[in-house]
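To whoever is covering the structure queue this week,

Two jobs came back overnight. Logging them here so there's a record in the thread.

Job A:
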Amino acid sequence: MSGGHAHTLHIHGHSVLHKLAPEVKIAAMLGGILAIVLTPREQFWAFGLYGLVVILLLGIGEIPLGFYLRRVLVEAPFVAFAVFLPFLGSEPTTSLAGLELSIEGSWAAWNILAKATLGVSLSIVLAATTEIPHILKGLERLRVPSLMIAIAGFMIRYLDVVTSELQRARIAMTARGHDARWFWQARPLATSAGAMFIRAYERGERIHQAMLARGFDGSMPMIDAPGEDRTRWELAAGFAGALWTVAAIAMVFA
């Protein structure tokens, strides 16, 4: 399962980022995201620098702009939530184009949009330049518990399977005259989703029994991934350190 399972988030390439060891990229990404989260929301210049770093990584990783824009849409629910915050926040308020907007709500909306977009962007860079089996191998090298790695691997593998089955069920329903477009037509879809959940649970039991019969000992077999070396860890430390420096300066002048 761990070997050879391609994912739509990955781009096959030979860039510098593709050749880095997965554990190095994971550590650098987590360190960078933590620095972004801790940056005060009022420091616009810091978020501008983070944005330039993301653009630089997209270029180094040879990630097409169209690919990035399609993947970043995953944060659409956060954007939809943030849009309403200026209208729902508490006083004091300010007027903009004839609309009364909450100042605190507007700051909260900006905080969510900026940090969510940057965090998702770094995740996209990691996924686009690292195959899923290599990410799992990197987590193993970072001493993440094997049970968590196994759960993550199965989740990624069978999410595609369950999604495909749900799509086939949706097509079958449409072919039989049910094309739900309104909220009150959602009951058949909910019933299908429940049936899919039961089927997924039963499939999981069968797979687990088959794995035990083949000698499964709690750890997943992993394919080889680019190895670590001191230079690569220095690159990761330099990347995370640069973002932490920006965050520290932003916090000092906040």
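Job B:
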Amino acid sequence: MLALDLDGTLLNSAMRMSDTNAEALKTAAERGVSVVLATSRWYALAKRTADRLGLTTPIVCSNGAEVREIDGGELLHLPLDAEAAREVVTWGDDHGWEMFTTVGHSTYMQMRPGIIPEKLPGGLKVADRHSEHLSEGAPVCVQIWQQAAVQEVAERFAPKYDGRARFSFNTPVGQPHYVVLTHPDAEKAKALELVREKLGIAQEETIAMGDSESDIEMLRWAGLGIAMRNSPDAVKKEALHIAPSNDEDGVAWAAIKFLL
């Protein structure tokens, strides 16, 4: 089983999957490798990449708060503490934070220049105030971007909701810092263990690749953990191998070296 993060790992700096990476993964899948996407992003966005690769394996999304079959069926659903979600999201609304808030099957974002709402990926919607949509279903995940907002979350909310929510702080190289707010038990490694058991694959036959602090536990969990060259040093220290960067087709490099 090959578990792959998306942003900063499978996707390049332009947020696209290269043909080289796609071809290597398709070849690996044809040879019996179960390719599993494990991302902090929401299901509908991850599914676009899964569909391009022709994957039928479950998808780990929302930083491990959800595991869904390719058709959307839920294998795991860990809702976010409602009070924590409402307080953080309302504060973010009031202060104009760049946020993505996943509620049920929808993910909300603020309007940006040049955005055409009708052309957004499936499940992604524009909302002036995310907090007004929290009653539509169980909130699952809140992503908050940019260093000043992330720092405020760390100081204002992480101590208050310690034990009631997981705050996963990430410092990607050359990209904005972000924090992911989820259920305290949401974790990519735990979600991948569920997928591994479902697929009947031994843990020593698993590979995980990632680039951010949210990926550290799955790098430790996997039989072989591989960090991207564009990872922070804290992530690289937890990996057995360092792959070329996400702009250098590092996923293809790993697939060829270890699987093909």
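Note for Job B: The chain has two domains: 2-77+186-258, 82-182.

Please reply-all if you pick these up so we don't duplicate work.
Q.
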